[in-house]
Every structure is written in structure tokens, then in C-alpha cells.
Design goal:
alpha+beta; Glutaredoxin; four-stranded mixed β-sheet; globular
Length: 216
């Protein structure tokens, strides 16, 4: 199987896809796209007009697969080692997909709003929007805390698509709005995620670029 992942090393959604690839030990090539290079950026937009990461090229099927969740589901359908990322039981698979959407929409999205605001000039910042994003994160944290067990993963005992989504979402959210001691299960879950070899590898590879992340 000839797979190429178009990615950026700080993109949370790219991390999500990378975790799945490393988790299943799938051979693939990386294609880092330099968005600051006009030619590189333009070439990427020729492939995918929206210019969004990650993008997986499956040469064997002559297909480009966008969107991190769809990339992981594609891998689960086509690569035996990745099948375990999606449960075979329909009800459990639905729970995994629901958790995946939750972490993307209610943790990743408000986190991104806060980060994007920090990158803007002072005169273009959006205090009201950031306050709303922080309130949404607080609500999401409470839901996560209530849904987690003291051990295991987001859905049952197996590491799935839901955990691939949770890892970058909670990691970056914790950077901009730290998890409080009142969220012990969520904090412990994030530590389990960080210790997982697939995510630990993603974090190691991103470390040289982390100085670019606006922590304040």
C-alpha cells in the first residue's frame, strides 16, 4: 500500500491522523506542506482547493482522502491493522463516532478559536468570541469528566478513533485553558493519552516546532 500524508507538524487534525497511522503501524510517506512558501501552498491547493490538512493520498486506489475522521475510517476499512480503530459492533461504532465528533466540535474548535485570536494583531482580536470559546471549553470539560471511567479509553477498553480525536484536542486545550484539579478523570485520561506510544511519537516529532505555538 502506497500512502502519503500531506500534513503540518503542529496541526491538531494532522496529529489525529498520525496517531492512527502510528497506532496501526502503517507504512506511509510524509509530505510536509510549507504554507509560508507560495509555490508549495499553491501546489497543495491544486490538489485540494480548500487547502485543509490532513490529506491522505492512497496511490493504490488513486484517491485523495480529506478530513481526519474520514482518513481514519478509510484506514480502518482498507488496512487490517487499523480495523480495531473502529468497533465492529454497530452500537459501539456509533458511540465512537459520537465521541469523535464531540472532541472535534466542542474541544478542538473552541481551542482553535482561542489560538487563532492570539495570532491576530491586538486591534483585530475578539474578546467576546474568546470568552464564548472558553465557556464552551468549560462545558465540554465537564461532559468529558462525567463520561470517562477511571481507567480505559474514551469508549470501552480499546483505543479507537475517539481517542485519536481526544489526544490532540485535550493536549492543545490544556495549553490554552488548563484542566483544573476538579477534573481528575480528564487529567488522568490525558496522561494516559500522552503515554500511549503512538501519541508520544507525535509529540516528540512536533517538539521542534512547538516554539511556534502561541502559549500566551
Amino acid at each position: 500500500m502506497a500512502l502519503t500524508l500531506y500534513y503540518h507538524p503542529l496541526s491538531s487534525y494532522c496529529w489525529k491522523a498520525l496517531i492512527a497511522l502510528y497506532e496501526a503501524e502503517i507504512p506511509f510517506a510524509k509530505r510536509l506542506v510549507d504554507l509560508q512558501d507560495p509555490e508549495d501552498h499553491a501546489a497543495f491547493r491544486e490538489i485540494t482547493p480548500l487547502g485543509k490538512f490532513p490529506l491522505l493520498h492512497d496511490a493504490d486506489r488513486d484517491r485523495y482522502i480529506p478530513e481526519s475522521s474520514i482518513v481514519i475510517e478509510h484506514l480502518a476499512l482498507t488496512v487490517p491493522g487499523a480495523a480495531r480503530l473502529m468497533p465492529t459492533a454497530a452500537a459501539q461504532a456509533l458511540d465512537v463516532r459520537a465521541k469523535d465528533r464531540f472532541f472535534d466540535l466542542y474541544v478542538m474548535e473552541p481551542m482553535a478559536k482561542i489560538v487563532e485570536d492570539r495570532l491576530r494583531p491586538e486591534t483585530e482580536r475578539d474578546p467576546r468570541g474568546v470568552a464564548a470559546a472558553r465557556a464552551r471549553l468549560d462545558t465540554a470539560y465537564g461532559i468529558v469528566e462525567h463520561s470517562l471511567r477511571e481507567t480505559g479509553w474514551a469508549v470501552g477498553d480499546d483505543f479507537t478513533l475517539a481517542d485519536c480525536a481526544a489526544a490532540p484536542a485535550l493536549f492543545y486545550a490544556n495549553e490554552v485553558q488548563p484542566l483544573s484539579p476538579a477534573l481528575p478523570r480528564t487529567r488522568a485520561y490525558l496522561e494516559r493519552l500522552r503515554a500511549r506510544p503512538s501519541f508520544a511519537r507525535v509529540l516528540r516529532e512536533a517538539e521542534p516546532y512547538m516554539t511556534l505555538f502561541p502559549r500566551s
